[in-house]
Amino acid sequence: MHEMSLVQALLTQLTSLAAEHDKKKVITVTLTIGPLSGVVIDSFQFGFDILSAESNLTKGARLIITSPTVSYHCVRCGSIQTAAMRPDHCPECSETLLIAEGGDAIILNQVEME
Amino acid sequence: MCDSCGCDLASNNHSHDTDSRIIEVHQSLLAANDAMAARNKAHFEAMGAVAINMISSPGSGKTTLLEKTIERLKKKIRIGVIEGDIETDRDAQRIRAKGVPVIQLTTGGACHLDAAQVHKGIHLLEKEPGGARLDLLFIENVGNLVCPATFDLGEHQRVVLVSVPEGPDKPAKYPKAFISSQIFLITKTDLLPYFDFPVTEARREALHLNPRLQVMALSATSGEGFEAWISYLEGLTGKTRKDNFPPLLSQS
Predict the structure, then answer these.
(1) How far is B226 from chain A, CA to nearest CA, in Å?
(2) Residue B206 domain-assigned?
(3) A95 at the B interface (CB within 8 A)?
(4) CB contact (8 A) between residue B25 and residue A13
């Protein structure tokens, strides 16, 4: 349940952003959580619902999470596949060794505050 | 012109609440951890150490592997250990008995070490006799194949371990640990006759996820496959092996 630690990191970041911009309330938080980040989005949402309710700044804030696709780079022919799930092999040359690129990010994109 | 407020924006599809504001951040949630990890790495290098983060499920043999590794290498390589556990200093006691500097971090419930905890750990280790100058620093993470994979500690190498009784499907089920590691160690190979663990399948599954992964299979108990592990560690520290090693089991 390391999602709880990441939610805490998010809330710390929101608190300092609010202080920096002199805001009192977080309305929406937009995040990108990659499918290879090792983060379960439902657990992250669950953790956010619990911890965000503990402070007036974040109480009731809405979380918008997008999950990008991953590019798989074939080590033999160099072709790149974009897929939600890891392909078993390269559709061009049947090579099974594919290197995943992207998809491991956990990014805070945007915060709406008032 | 906007119909609602008369501003010079082309559409009226924007907020008219003057107090509401969208702030673009585009920063990793791990940014604070990663910044601390970079500091840790510089600190390891200032100590002269190559740092290795060891990740596995509970009970896969991390501590036993470290005990045997220390017995084997401590005469020529200065080794230090940072132990991570939820509770107790039992692992640190086992390592201390081998005569190398060690400190125990207890997370009090957290399922992984993070860079800030390890930063504290480095400062504690430096206060231990012989802990300030090291060639090799092992960080034994909390036993967990999931959460530790997300947190960079500033290590130079990440080693993921799976023991034979756990089964060969672990890479497929817990991909992040294998994608983010450089070394995959299959441990407890002395138990292969008693378990259905096709080593080739585990190797194939892991390489499928991460073609750059170096795979080794060993038993810390029988010594089988241990040489490759020792050679790898010696290579990391730049200290080449000498001819007359004490036999692995003679010191145990």
Answers:
(1) 27
(2) yes
(3) no
(4) yes
